[in-house]
Specification:
387 residues; Endoglucanase, Chain: A
Amino acid sequence: MKYLASLLLLVGISVVRAYEECYACGIVTVEDDIKWGVEDNDWCIIGSKCNNSNALKQCFSFPDYLCCEGCNVVEETAEGKWGVENNHWCGIKDSCFSNNNNNNNNNQAVQSNYKYDSAIKFKEAPGGYTNPCQKAGKIVKENYNGVNGGNSLYVYLPYNYDKNKQYNIFYLMHGGGENESTIFFNNDVKLQNILDHMIMNGELEPLIVVTPTFNKCEARTFYKEFRESVVPFVEGKYSTYAKSTSPADIKASRMHRAFGGFSMGSASTWAVLVNCLDIVGYYMPLSGDNWEANGGYGKAKSVADAIDKSGLQKNQYFIFCATGSEDIAYPNMNPQIDEMKKMPQFIYTSDFSKGNFYYLVANGKTHWWGYVKHYIYDALPSFFHEG
């Protein structure tokens, strides 16, 4: 069994206090007709959901771990194939691999069972997450010839990356005066450590993260190189949900592709949103406003107009914005966000099963990667569950 606390706590279950209901159904002991389990090193009560539901029992991991609702494999052990849903390990059902359950890669929006928080607040990653992880992913430098000439980027591959599995992919852009190495090698960031710990602890499904650069063009115009050069190069070499690098397959896999960036990289993000909605489903602009127009209303309207032009439904694009209340970007970003909240194209909530747009403001935080990496920690788990 994976990561389950091995044995009973020293404190007896007769101690009078409130206990949570167990997430899974593994019974450790029974006392006074109450069934008890142990999860996260604490006692919990086996709930009534475990009594009569045959649907719960359709995978190898039950009762210690529930069966996954979906079929996305995160890890395979001798016991079977595992997924992560609602921040818990779950067993993949055998039915996922029958002939009638092939993984169709289309653009139809499908609602997930992920348990969202409707109003996410700023929370720093646990202290240990900024340190190297025992199950560390791999960072690869890649060189490519793009529309703006020779260039390079870095690719983060999760621990135990398997070229035969499909991975969601997140393109993340640096800020002004930085380059493609900043996010993984600058001591203020080293985002791979946070990603490694999140994946190891089941908070995030394994994914690929790419750090390109706009230094051969401009932040606002990088979307051209992104579409024409970066995506075909990266996804032609690494395993994503794109069946091929044809325009049709890149578009069909858009809900498994995200773009984000900090500062001037946020300007790149808004530009990708305005110009590449057909190939990207999720966006994370961090501490930077939309440079495609002027004024709060104009900036918001240019995004809304692009959405209208795309013909997408409201559950086919998702935007998670973040900045600090003392960030130099806040005075320009805030008016745009306020105007977007008034527009029908945007439904404001961090529960992406019910809306498509959210804005996290971290009290007292300034324009620094040391804070921004925690915005990513807060936002990224909400991505890739819809569609």
